[in-house]
């Protein structure tokens, strides 16, 4: 099952050095989910060939502008492009008020419904469940309320061992039972263990998005089962004091979390405007956690 | 005196084909004034080397997103870049409410004051006067209240004819009087006409920005003294019905206005997403008014 993330923006606070503010698009089995939507995200979508109509879910971590100022423009463009299907929007409660006010003063009545889910700022929760995955929030520690998001594939049923079921001439109509580990009894009355006729399902994978936060360990319990971790990494570790003061994380701290939580891959982003060249941030993180990558715009990472 | 306009965006409604929504920067004698501020304007400023701190005045024509969704981001970036001097903002009254709400929910207390001037939606007025120029609004006819802006240089004092005043050994302290046409009497009691000792000042130039509007002639009285006219030109003339329906102007209509008002130069912009190639719009306008130019991003036009 496809599970990958494409980076649309990796700049903190202000756009600079051709880096745009935060936004990513997850593709989970051809469902496209957007995480954060800084200014210029719709321009980035055009640049990287991501169609507006593919996005049905948008998750906003918090109400600092570099994480949501592109949302109103994207919604407006969806409207002007004739969208009619529902858009599922998840974010802090105040987001609705901000959108409503702007649509009111531009006299815009959207051609499509927005189903808005106000995220809780004080506790983790499951905010979406589909056939294929869950989305959970968890609480980060930033200057204003901020949530992280975790995207977890569901455990699938066991897989049919084609060659064995063919040999036993088990009818296809029985496969769903086998997948649920219900044994098969043949014409001679002999029982064949469903467990032997099936194989383990793929291990569910998980992606976590740690938006702006100080690296205080309060949220790492939520990263236990994570394969690919995106973690903000605004500063290098020589700026640790500044990071704490502004409720941000250093590259080294992000790598320590990745290492402690034993993830497979770490993506770092949300880079401060002070770094034109990002190589030092990458090398600092890799000194602790080898499988670190820069969340560069336009790049797609398999999860 | 320098008087020129740089185009930052020329797309209507949605960004497309690398065209960004409306924004322009006027340079009047090294004062930089921004007109409209669609999403991504701050990215365009970076691209074309226009520094945030140079902008002290921003004029917003109306509250459709393609004309102001970039404003909140630009103001935030000015804040994060440590701006302390006042920013003079002119726009529809509701703009203040929209900005205030977003700053409130992001817990942002701007490091610089915004002096907000609410434009009137029903009548023309002078909204700014400096030593060098006036800015006037005039009422356009769009789906929501919308103003045009006219930037008029002031008539300067007469210019000293250096070779003549040197010959007569007139002290420099007397120049301001000559400029005000006060005659000079020399030691022998002979009167020298100030008018002869000075030359005509430069003819004041004017730039008008006609944002979204139907071309109904209601505002052309304000374009009489205009040298360079920017006029929206969303559609080609075969779409005139659609233009009227959406309160927009065709390329041909914009050219007719330029021709009727006898301006020197017409800039057309705010192009519909249906036109990838803009040449047909340009040719259509030039069939009526030769001195028409596409308001292409990054181009600077002398006024």
Structure commentary:
The structure is a homodimer of 303-residue chains. Chain A folds into two domains: 3-156 and 202-302, Ribonuclease Z/Hydroxyacylglutathione hydrolase-like (Metallo-beta-lactamase, Chain A, 4-Layer Sandwich), CATH 3.60.15; 159-199, no CATH class. Chain A has helices at 41-48, 71-80, 94-105, 162-167, 175-179, 194-197, 240-245, 251-260, 279-286; strands at residues 3-9, 23-28, 31-37, 55-59, 87-91, 114-118, 125-129, 133-139, 147-153, 159-160, 184-185, 191-192, 198-199, 206-210, 228-232, 265-269, 292-294, 300-302. The model of chain A has no long low-confidence stretch (mean pLDDT 95). By secondary structure, chain A is α/β, with parallel strands linked by helices. The interface between A and B is medium-sized, with 34 and 34 residues.
Task: Provide the descriptors you would attach to this structure in a database record.
homodimer; 303 residues; alpha/beta; Metallo-beta-lactamase, Chain A; 2 domains; seven-stranded mixed sheet; 18 strands; 27% strand; globular
Summarize this entry quickly.
Two copies of one chain form a homodimer. Chain A is α/β, with parallel strands linked by helices and 303 residues long. The first copy, chain A, has helices at residues 41-48, 71-80, 94-105, 162-167, 175-179, 194-197, 240-245, 251-260, 279-286; strands at 3-9, 23-28, 31-37, 55-59, 87-91, 114-118, 125-129, 133-139, 147-153, 159-160, 184-185, 191-192, 198-199, 206-210, 228-232, 265-269, 292-294, 300-302.
């Amino acid at each position: 099952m496809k599970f990958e993330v494409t980076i649309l923006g990796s700049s903190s606070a202000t756009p600079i050095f051709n880096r745009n503010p935060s936004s990513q698009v997850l593709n989970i089995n051809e469902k496209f989910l957007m995480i954060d939507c800084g200014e210029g995200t719709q321009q980035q979508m055009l640049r990287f060939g991501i169609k507006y109509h593919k996005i049905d879910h948008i998750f906003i971590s918090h109400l600092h502008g570099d994480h949501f100022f592109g949302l109103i423009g994207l919604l407006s463009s969806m409207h002007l492009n004739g969208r009619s299907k529902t858009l599922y929007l998840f974010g802090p409660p105040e987001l609705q008020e901000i959108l409503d006010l702007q649509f009111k003063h531009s006299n815009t009545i959207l051609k499509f419904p927005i189903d808005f889910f106000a995220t809780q700022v004080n506790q983790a929760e499951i905010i979406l469940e589909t056939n294929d995955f869950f989305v959970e929030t968890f609480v980060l520690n930033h200057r204003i309320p901020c949530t992280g998001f975790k995207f977890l594939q569901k455990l699938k049923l066991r897989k049919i061992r084609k060659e064995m079921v063919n040999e036993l001439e088990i009818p296809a109509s029985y496969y769903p039972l086998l997948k649920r580990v219900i044994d098969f009894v043949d014409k001679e009355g002999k029982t064949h263990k469903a467990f032997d006729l099936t194989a383990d399902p793929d291990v569910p994978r998980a992606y976590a998005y740690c938006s702006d936060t100080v690296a205080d360990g309060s949220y790492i319990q939520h990263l236990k089962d994570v394969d690919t971790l995106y973690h903000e990494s605004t500063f290098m570790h020589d700026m640790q004091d500044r990071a704490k003061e502004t409720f941000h994380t250093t590259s080294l701290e992000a790598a320590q979390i990745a290492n402690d939580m034993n993830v497979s891959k770490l993506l770092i982003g949300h880079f401060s405007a002070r770094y034109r060249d990002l190589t030092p941030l990458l090398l600092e993180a890799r000194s602790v956690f080898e499988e670190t990558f820069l969340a560069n715009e336009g790049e797609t990472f398999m999860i």
